Amino acid sequence: MSKKKRDITVYGLPIIETHFHLDYLKEGSADEILAAARAVGVEKFMTISVTPDNMPVALSLAEQHDDLFCTLGVHPHDAALFTDDAEAYIRTHAIHNKVVAVGEIGLDYYYDHCDREVQRKVFARQLQLAVESELPVVIHTREADEDTMAMLREYAPQMKRKGVVHSFTSGMELAQLAVELGFCLGINGIVTFNKADNVREVVAATPLANLLLETDAPYLTPIPFRGAENAPKYLPFVAEKIAEVKNLPIADVIKATYQNSLREFFQASNS
Known about the structure:
By secondary structure, the chain is an alpha/beta fold. The chain is 39% helix and 16% strand.
């Protein structure tokens, strides 16, 4: 952990956490984790599903907290677990007022935990679910730019609502295509990492209207807290780095990413 830890600045502006895994956080109860984030301005939270077993857990958590929402989907690491029952669960619960997106879905050729053809088929099935449910998506892509771009080109025109390519670390070509198709890019603590020049270059080149704040907690804790478990309360550090990279006032970044989050995920439910 960095020795240059500092207090989290409270900017007095609402923030939306668009991607974290509440049931995976271990340092504190759900109530404590959410309260700590609210204290720095986080107004809404999206806890993200990754497996069939995880979906009911995420939904149950969301039902217990007024400002917590969830997504339903199966991560590419676990694409082999995607079954007709998992698809039926997403389809049945897509109309729930606490479900704001289909995700976390996509392709991961870096770890290759699942056969790539299976990943592609499951990604396609879940994109189709999003089309039919008129929900946006939360996309994970790593070392799979070409196939991800092909899938987005195929399905985006059918999608009433688009969503986000989360934890963006891909190339500029995918970033530009995603923006052209109407998607946002999710930016988290990686943007603060010393070796993440590629991410900062994408942030610099991407319109502010297409950026979202996220943590991916408990992973990817931003500097100056690397080494600690990540949590939504650290979102101001992500916003600060985006402001620095884009040479903008921090208030502009927080206000814009808040409005972007409302537009992408809460246009049907701003409560």
